[in-house]
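Hey,

The postdoc asked me to send both predictions to you directly instead of through the lab channel. I've kept everything plain text so nothing gets mangled by the mail client. Protein one:
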Amino acid sequence: GDTGTNMVLTMQAAWDEVESVGDRSVADVIHAIAHGALMGARGNSGVILSQLWRGLARSLDGRLEVGVPDLARALAEARDTAYKGVVKPVEGTILTVAKDVATAAEQAEAEGVTSILELLERVVEAAGQSVERTPDLLPILKEAGVVDSGGKGLFFILEGMLRSAYGQRLDEPIVSVQPLSALNLDGAMEAIEPGQDWEVVVDFRPGTGFEVQTFYDRLESMGTSIQVGEGEGMLRMHIHVPDNTQYEPIEYIRGIGTITKVHLENLMDQTAEKPAADGGFGAHLEAVEPGQIAVVVVAPGPGIGRVFASLGAAAIIQGGQTMNPSTKEILSAFENLPTDKVVILPNNKNVRMAAEQTVDLTVKQTAVIPSVNVPQGVAAMFALDPSGDFESVVEAMGSALAEVHAAEITIATRSVDIDGVACSQGQVIALVDGRLIAAGDTVEEAIRSILEFLPMETAELLTLYFGEDLHPQEANRLADFIRESQPELEVELIDGGQPHYLLILSIE
């Protein structure tokens, strides 16, 4: 469900972008899809999907019509782009399905297929077969008795194309799926500072002698939320400016280039819909000064958000397991900050790729620390020196991840056998550093398994973050249970307020 939701929201963002396209040529539409998917990408599956569209757009650039050779080449470029976008590609995932789809298209062209519909039929058939093979390539899928969900999502998208091409109904799914009406499709809007009333977007072709950094420095004197994007011999400038000065950036650009398009939008009408910089958690955030390093944190619960705020986070995004923030939401969290040095802590393995995409979408110096859980994020925050050298601080924060073990206790949503551990739906399960280690009937059993699994003789501090489904009185009782079994260990209890996980344990 998490992967499906992420892919739906990514495609919803792509569709929203297509709606605003005036010229409906193949190239214009596919570029709009690619841009919308890029900004709306959520989770690893959504990011990889956006890269597939990016490859298609690159291959079909300038095309008014698409024939079999064009589509075959485009699917191959989509495959290559997606693989290049992943540091360590894993077979048995959406990547494999994309590869098999491209191979099927190339084979169809080689066999003399001339009909786009026939090519699409071959592609959908290959995608379905590839999905069914994913458990043979990825042992974790075979253990769980499932196929890869990202690959299955790509199959549904391709099958939807084929159905649409034949005029078939799209509302008769092969399997039971969650309807769009049941999903939260509220896109994360950009945060704006007090007094910033207008959003100004200008597309222009720069004149000779144009220098991006000088241009950016000049814009900083006009407003905030500055973004400068480059593509196809043209630049796009985005800025938020105070009321009555919305034309100042336009006049400035007229003197340095040729304007091709201008978009103005009054932001004050939307301020009630903007998310707070603290993720809506009510945390007190320290003001970041120009030139300092700002840390943007993804936090799953209000208590955890307040912990990060107390450690110096400049912006907090609500998110985590099953609620991955989009690339646009992460970008919006720091584009208004008055500094050009940004560090992002995703604190979830399925948020990392969306965070990494922001690095290429901003002119700010940005680094993503690969934290995959809350304890790692907290450990990294202790290495933060806001006024330190950016590269040195990033290195220190990254090194801090190895100084902590993270354990999680939750309820099994289905029966499965993974990592040599069999669990039944409804059982209490324990995970250590992302690995399932035990299943039982009580939280105490899960805690005991964690303490036996880890080298507790070298541990000094255990922090318990209890979730929204655990009563404080019960959380205190469990903390005392740990203190009794580990008398030499310092135990801290924090109301994390996170969903899904009864307890998150940080062991240092």
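Protein two:
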Amino acid sequence: MAAESGPEALWIAKGLSYLCGHLGEVRELLNDDGALPGTPLGRLLSVLREGGTGAEVSGLLDMVDEAARRAGDQHGVYGPDNTRRGEPSGMEALQIVFRCPLRLCTGRSAREVGRSVPVCPVSPQRLPLERERL
């Protein structure tokens, strides 16, 4: 999926960026640890770990978004008016960002990460996000 580009790929990457950064909250909201292959979250995490295609990921991410909204999160994984954050990571001068090692999502800003080195929650090896100065 990392090789895909365009508006749909950015849409998916932004949704995955939010999901990865808030996976614990989403798991709690959905009462789903992501381990069961029959749930939308479990299916999405499994497809991501296996390197699924954009179409597979997009459909499952939509299902997780819908489940989150049904569970009471009015913004889901895409955010209010379908824009979780007004700007992607890396829009401030000399900003530190943390990039996804699998190139699945748009990453997170240092402001979102805090002091700990974050890991990619969908990476089977729990790879750390890559720190980069823009």
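Summary for protein two, as requested: The first helix runs from residue 7 to 21.

Thanks,
C.
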